[in-house]
Amino acid sequence: xxxxxxxxxxxxxxxxLILGPAPANMLFTLINLLQGIGGxxxxxxLLRRHAPLNSLLNCxxxxxRLAFLLCxxxxxxxxxx
Length: 81
Fold this sequence. Notes:
By secondary structure, the protein is mainly α. The chain has 3 helices and no strands.
């Protein structure tokens, strides 16, 4: 958890330095934080703990599910859900 919060703070600082300290730019930090949490949850759910690298089928499943979620999110974003 401290690592995740440290990365979020670094992202917020980088966005503030490069894009300016506008509150709208902090949305990037929130998106990155949600992606990190979602990716961690999906990895814990899909990969076996004793041999995570040996479960190649689960990695393919993870990739397909992420692609599906990205397509759904993009479609919803453009249609104004």
